[in-house]
Design a protein that fits this description.
Helix content: under 10%
Number of helices: 0
Strand content: over 45%
Distance between the termini: 40 Å
Number of strands: 11
Shape: globular
Order of helices and strands: EEEEEEEEEEE
Length: 122
């Protein structure tokens, strides 16, 4: 079992930055690839980024490439999503998720956090 808790969301102006964190419980954190997803009102949950168990492989959806950076610290059981040059269309609830392997498919992830709201004003 893995429990995930996101933090770091908030309200920011367009062009600003936020850093999301996702803290995981349990001693098996390094056995899981991690993903970030987001869901805007009235829209389906979409893939944002994923990172392999060691951090050697990182994947992004095209709309965030060059603006968002995902990383992990296995010693702290935490993954991060640094979000720069935020846009109003980035507004959503952001979720972290754990899976044995990195994938863009939300349904493949075994564990999910409760989400953290990110609101970008224009």
């Amino acid at each position: 079992q893995v429990q995930l808790v996101e933090s770091g969301g908030g309200l920011v102006q367009a062009g600003g930055s936020l850093r999301l964190s996702c803290a995981a419980s349990g001693r098996t954190f390094s056995s899981y690839a991690m993903g970030w997803f987001r869901q805007a009102p009235g829209k389906e949950r979409e893939f944002v980024a994923a990172i392999s168990r060691t951090g050697g492989g990182i994947y992004y959806t095209d709309s965030v490439k060059g603006r968002f950076t995902m990383s992990r610290d296995n010693a702290k059981n935490t993954v991060y999503l640094q979000m720069n040059r935020l846009k109003p269309e980035d507004t959503a609830v952001y979720y972290c998720a754990a899976n044995p392997g990195p994938t863009v498919v939300a349904e493949a992830y075994d564990y999910w956090g409760q989400g953290t709201q990110v609101t970008v004003s224009s």
